[in-house]
Design goal:
With 574 residues, this protein is of the alpha+beta class. The protein has 14 helices and 26 strands. The strands form seven sheets. A five-stranded parallel beta sheet has the order 2-1-3-4-5, sandwiched between helices. The longest helix has 65 residues.
């Protein structure tokens, strides 16, 4: 009996110590939560980084991790989970000074996270962001994250000044380290060299860094929340374990009670889904065949490929649809306008080009400032057209192939006579050219350019080249397509709200109708909306093709117009 008591005594003592530690951890967490709530900021973190790889991929993932992070319950506000907000500038600054929006975001950010690589010290914008944040908030709220190199070669000058004592090194300032083993090797050439020579290796190293970030995020969040790394990671682990246990128990009970019912329901739902998917694929395949017949081979191939993505080998219509797809691809590859024997030197690593409507001529950027026209059959250059001061970005032929419009990075587009090479007009349009197209009767020319703050749409008279109308979209535009008759434009924005996809008038940019996003239901029963990647008009202008990450749909315009008019009428009923 005495021996048993002696053996159990250390166990009981250890349990007491563990309870004391839990109490201390809880007190420390409550103290950190109280300090965190004392002052509110618009943003909990501002991410400063270079717009190069892998820096921008890591910044994007870190952004998502912070905003989706579930903190300990002590940080909840009125019983609700704290929502974290992060500011991450998506574009490389073009001005010499920080924009007002950047300075405002720095002032309203609780912490500054700096992604440090060997190329970070070369960025004057990263240095300015660090310097500005230090002036506003001091040195205590800066979180360096090491991506590559050592701190003395990856830290910008303002970060090197964060050492707070003679016995401290730059490594003491470092908050998180996501360097893969290969990056730590002395013979590692650096991400910049890897990006130039081996893109596959860069992607692999980026994946390794993102994997390390899954653990290092706790160090970053511990700094933001004011608690210890160990406490925060242990709390998150316990929360996940409880969630897994709860879900497992609930799932097991539901499975035991409703397994037979769910199996039958699944069979019926799967059969209905397959029939719907096959029907939709058949419609898209027919559209693809029509596009190929009309000569729009690239769009025909893309639509055929998307149509087959949801079709499994076990479906009834698989063989027929696969046969139709291969027939379309055969037409795309071997149609009469193609020649695999033609080789043309453009003196550029990246060249923009356009094919004439009769497929006899190809226009392309030649060198850094010229436009060239060559014969498709043998690659012979028949016209060299000067006029630009920078590389050509966009080319398009008129419908009758008599005119060629060449737009470049020098904020201008030039109209050439294809037969003579004469310059018919030159217009100065600010921004990067993104889309140019003639109307079906060649009477108008539509042009779209992107600036740092907007997407600008123009309509010109194709005879006098006088501007007929223009409007701007002060939001990020992912994709735009102009209807063949020039009456409207289909605009896909980069956000995911109810106005993401709209049809607008080309005269003034007014909204004709809004295309509803596709709704989904998650496994937990909550509803969410799927954003569109792009959308474009069919060749006959009677319908639109909608593309998401996992689905392609076709909608007829008359149905959209009818639905929009009914919805507007219903709003007028008192």
């Amino acid at each position: 009996m005495e021996k048993e008591l002696e053996q159990n005594a250390p166990i009981a003592e250890e349990e007491k110590l563990q309870n004391y530690r839990k109490d201390d951890d809880a007190e420390e967490m409550e103290k950190a939560a109280k300090e965190f709530k004392e002052k509110e900021y618009k943003f909990d973190a501002f991410i400063s980084y270079r717009h190069v790889e892998p820096d921008q991929s890591i910044a994007k993932q870190l952004h998502l991790m912070i905003e989706s992070f579930k903190p300990p319950k002590e940080f909840y506000q009125d019983g609700k989970k704290t929502t974290f907000r992060v500011f991450r500038d998506r574009e490389e600054l073009a001005a010499r000074d920080l924009s007002s929006s950047i300075e405002e975001a720095l002032a309203e950010s609780r912490y500054l996270i700096v992604l440090c690589s060997k190329r970070t010290p070369l960025s004057e914008w990263c240095e300015k962001e660090i310097r500005t944040f230090r002036q506003l908030h001091g040195d205590e709220r800066i979180i360096p994250v090491l991506i590559e190199g050592e701190p003395d070669e990856a830290f910008p000058a303002p970060l090197k000044q964060l050492k707070r004592g003679a016995d401290q090194s730059l490594a003491d300032v470092l908050a998180a380290d996501i360097r893969p083993d290969e990056v730590l090797r002395k013979d590692f050439p650096g991400y910049e060299e890897v990006q130039k020579k081996d893109s596959a290796k860069l992607q692999n190293l980026t994946k390794q860094a993102l994997h390390l970030l899954k653990t290092e995020k706790y160090r970053i969040m511990a700094t933001i929340l004011g608690c210890t790394f160990g406490d925060l990671k242990q709390r998150d682990k316990e929360r996940k374990n409880r969630l897994i246990l709860t879900i497992s128990s609930l799932s097991g009970a539901i499975f035991l009670l409703f397994s037979i019912f769910m199996f039958n329901a699944y069979q019926k739902a799967e059969q209905a889904r397959q029939e719907a998917v096959q029907s939709n694929a058949g419609i898209l395949m027919k559209s693809s065949q029509d596009m190929a017949k009309e000569g729009d081979y690239l769009k025909a191939a893309l639509v055929a490929e998307e149509a087959m993505k949801p079709i499994g080998k076990g479906m009834k219509a698989y063989k027929q649809l696969q046969s139709e797809k291969m027939s379309i691809f055969n037409d795309v590859i071997y149609h009469s306008g193609a020649s695999t024997l033609t080789s043309i030197s453009t003196k550029n690593k990246l060249t923009f080009m356009a094919l004439s409507n009769d497929e006899k001529l190809v226009a392309f950027g030649l060198g850094n400032d010229e436009t060239a026209i060559a014969k498709v059959e043998n690659g012979e250059i028949i016209k060299r057209l000067p006029g630009h001061s920078q590389q050509v970005k966009l080319l398009t032929f008129s419908k009758d192939d008599k005119l060629l419009v060449s737009a470049a990075f020098d904020n201008s587009f030039i109209v050439y006579d294809v037969e003579t090479g004469e310059e018919k007009a030159k217009l100065e349009i600010p921004g990067v050219p993104m889309l140019g197209r003639f109307s079906g009767d060649n009477s108008q020319f539509f042009y779209v350019s992107f600036t740092n703050t907007s997407a600008d749409f123009y309509v010109f008279d194709a005879n006098t080249w006088q501007q007929l109308s223009t409007f701007s979209i002060q939001e990020t535009v992912k994709y735009a397509d102009i209807k063949s008759d020039g009456s409207e434009v289909l605009i896909t924005l980069g956000n995911n709200d109810e106005n993401q996809l709209t049809r607008r008038s080309l005269k003034d940019g007014s909204v004709i109708s809004t295309i509803d996003r596709i709704g989904r239901t998650s496994l937990d029963g909550s509803n969410f909306m799927i954003p569109y990647k792009s959308a474009f008009y069919s060749n006959d202008g009677k319908s639109i093709i909608l593309l998401t990450d996992d689905e392609l749909q076709k909608k007829f315009l008359w149905r959209i117009i009818k639905f929009s008019s009914v919805r507007r009428s219903s709003l007028q009923i008192p």
